[in-house]
């Protein structure tokens, strides 16, 4: 069995590449509001502030940061809606 | 309830309004209520018939600043008006016109963009601000 450390299935991907601060965070918040508890959202952002801002927002809002990966020219941030 | 962010907008140039819109959206994202009070040239910029017009930049921008701002806009940056609209969707953002500035500019609320929630005097603004800081832009 290899399912112990796999990334949970992503419910929805929000591609906010090309959007400037604070656009990606606002798109994520809108997505979180529309999501159900337990949903996993992935957001792509090419804005350099997102990789610090979005995890801080997730912590403040009480959701769970699943992962943060820097890819080719953008960051992918995965979050679980917990409440 | 988190402490509100209280901002007096005086300047009516697009760069300062953009900066104010970003500050507002960030506070709204964190659940902080935002009270905005529009005076003078900032109020003029919220007129319904020209909110999306070019309101110029602060003098220190110069030609290079103008080119930089134009470049970001061409790359798809949301306008300050759109950023304020998004901030209002996110949280408790109240935008009030200063009644003195309304008189100065001979405006009625019907002349203003729907982003503006109402008209009030400075005392009402301070009462909403409570003990919180007031930022002037």
**What is the averaged pLDDT score of chain B?**
96
Order of helices and strands of chain A: EHEHEE
In the CATH scheme, the class of the domain at 1-25 and 79-137 in chain B would be Alpha Beta
- Going by CATH, what is the homologous superfamily of the domain at 1-25 and 79-137 in chain B? DsrEFH-like
Task: Tell me the strand percentage band of chain B.
Answer: 15-25%
Global geometry of chain A: globular
Number of E-state strands of chain B: 5
Mean pLDDT of chain A: 93
Q: CATH superfamily name of chain A?
A: TusA-like domain
Report Rg of chain A. Answer: 12 Å
The strands making up the biggest β-sheet of chain B line up spatially as 4-3-2-1-5
Total domains of chain A, how many?
A: 1
Largest interface: A-B, 13 and 16 residues
Q: Based on the coordinates given, report the CATH architecture of chain A.
A: 2-Layer Sandwich
Helix content of chain A: 25-40%
How far apart are the first and last residues' alpha carbons of chain A, in Å? Answer: 30 Å
Side-by-side strand order of the widest sheet of chain A: 1-2-4-3
- The number of helical segments of chain B is 6
């Amino acid at each position: 069995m290899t399912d112990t450390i796999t990334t949970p299935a992503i419910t929805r991907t929000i591609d906010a590449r090309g959007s400037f601060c604070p656009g990606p965070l606002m798109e994520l918040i809108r997505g979180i509001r529309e999501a159900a508890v337990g949903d996993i959202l992935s957001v792509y952002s090419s804005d350099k502030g997102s990789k610090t801002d979005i995890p801080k927002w997730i912590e403040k809002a009480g959701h769970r940061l699943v992962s943060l990966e820097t890819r080719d020219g953008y960051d992918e941030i995965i979050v679980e809606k917990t409440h | 309830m988190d402490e509100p962010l209280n901002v007096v907008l005086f300047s009516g140039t697009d760069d300062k309004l953009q900066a104010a819109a970003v500050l507002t959206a960030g506070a709204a994202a964190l659940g902080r209520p935002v009270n905005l009070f529009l005076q003078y040239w900032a109020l003029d910029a919220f007129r319904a018939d020209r909110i999306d017009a070019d309101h110029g930049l602060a003098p220190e921008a110069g030609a290079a600043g103008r080119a930089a701002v134009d470049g970001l806009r061409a790359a798809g940056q949301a306008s300050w008006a759109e950023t304020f609209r998004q901030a209002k969707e996110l949280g408790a953002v109240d935008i009030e016109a200063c009644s003195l500035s309304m008189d100065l500019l001979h405006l009625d609320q019907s002349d203003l963009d729907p982003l503006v929630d109402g008209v009030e005097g400075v005392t009402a603004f301070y009462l909403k601000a409570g003990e919180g800081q007031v930022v002037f832009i």
